[in-house]
Amino acid sequence: MLETSGVLSAVADQLSIGLVLIDKDNRITLFNRLAGLMLQVQPSERLGSTIFSCHPRESDGAVERLIDDIRTGVLDHYEGWINYRGKVLYEYIRPIRTDAGEYLGMIEELHDAQDRAEVLQARGEWQDVHVTGVGSRAPRKPEFPRP
Description:
Number of helices: 5
Strand order of the largest sheet: 2-1-5-4-3-6
Radius of gyration: 15 Å
Oligomer: single chain
Shape: globular
């Protein structure tokens, strides 16, 4: 498991972005305060659980492919829009690697992107993003370990 210290957690809680660290076994090892506010969940509920439980079961295949593509280097990162229960976010996901290239996990940044979306809407450049976090697109309860 990618180890995080109390200092790292305290620093992460001071950032103006949502931050989630996921280890090579797909376990959440850090989930900062702002990520919790953005995703409307207590960070402590997600620590140690699998990243898959943050998504609906129907998304498992897509999440697995994304993780595998980042792990193997097919993708050097992922970025995209999220409409989570009406809150517009933009996420960046990047691998964490040793100097030798060994995959250790991933880092996910979440940014409040409502202002950016409104600018794109005003320019006529916005494409709606499906709403997640509700109904059949709601995250699962944390899973320890993934079935």
